Amino acid sequence: MRIPGSFFLAFCLNRGTSEGPRVGFTVPRSTGKAVERNRIKRRLREAVRLQLWKLAPQWDVVFNARRTALAAPFEELEREVDRVFRRCKAS
């Protein structure tokens, strides 16, 4: 399942096994230099860490970040991650 957002594009896959949720991050080179890409990954990782308990164990989620994630307020990033996890749970 593909879930678009203003800060990232999320891809969700239901594995069917309960090994625990797995989350990955990609940030394209076109987003900026390495310092900016790493900062985006750190911000997304923290937002996911705070919301991970909401994700069922059978899900794989990959976040493909957009440049807007760099300057976005952290609360909005958390809200978007929560929205993705809820959509995964609903399907």
Question: What this model shows, in words?
Answer:
The protein has one domain (2-90): Ribosomal Protein S5, domain 2. It is 38% helix and 24% strand. The protein has helices at residues 34-51, 74-90, and strands at residues 2-4, 8-14, 22-26, 59-65. It has a four-stranded mixed β-sheet with strand order 1-2-4-3, with helices on one face. Helix 1 links the parallel strand 3 and strand 4. Helix 1 (34-51) crosses helix 2. The longest helix is centred in the middle third of the chain and has 18 residues, at 34-51.
Brief write-up:
The protein is of the alpha+beta class.
For the largest beta-sheet, the strand count, sense and barrel status come to: 4 strands, mixed
Derived structural class: alpha+beta
Q: For this structure, what is the CATH class?
A: Alpha Beta
In terms of DSSP E residues, the strand content is 15-25%
Shape: globular
Number of structural units classed as domains: 1
Question: What would you say the CATH architecture is?
Answer: 2-Layer Sandwich
How many DSSP helices? Answer: 2
Q: What topology, given as strand order, has the largest sheet?
A: 1-2-4-3
In N-to-C order, the SSE pattern is EEEHEH
Low-confidence stretches: none
CATH fold call: Ribosomal Protein S5, domain 2
- What is the tally of beta strands? 4
If you average the pLDDT, what whole number results?
Answer: 94
